[in-house]
Design a protein that fits this description.
Elements (H helix, E strand, L loop, with lengths): L2 H17 L4 H10 L3 H17 L4 H21 L14 H29 L1
Helix pairs in contact: 3-4
Length: 122
């Protein structure tokens, strides 16, 4: 099937949709034919053209949104899937945490000794 034949078939399918504008099955069948991102782009342009003429057309709004949903799903399906990297803290965090804890313990012990000396002074 050549590109010209594909575009003619798409144009005929769109004409069927336009003739039966309120028929949900026709819209669904039209979009089901447009499985690729390129096909969904064509369908999106078709619905946008209708919305340019009739901005509040509920049928065009609904199916334009469906085109966007399908294109988003198709685009996300093309993204490479990788395992997320395990969360690891930098190497310096454990020694730094030990130093901080050591300093806090030393300060707490010094404060304890000061309180103990003041208590003995009584």
């Amino acid at each position: 099937m050549t590109a010209e034949t594909e575009s003619e078939a798409e144009a005929r399918a769109w004409d069927d949709v336009v003739r039966a504008w309120d028929d949900e099955a026709r819209h669904r069948a039209y979009l089901d034919r447009q499985a690729s991102l390129e096909g969904l782009a064509v369908a999106g342009r078709r619905y946008r053209e209708v919305l340019d003429l009739r901005p509040l057309d509920p049928v065009a709004l609904r199916w334009r949104d469906e085109v966007i949903r399908r294109a988003t799903a198709a685009g996300l399906a093309l993204l490479p899937r990788e395992k997320p990297l395990p969360l690891r803290a930098p190497r310096w965090t454990r020694p730094a945490a030990l130093v901080v804890v050591g300093i806090l313990l030393a300060l707490a012990f010094a404060a304890f000794l000061r309180v103990l000396q003041e208590w003995r002074a009584f």
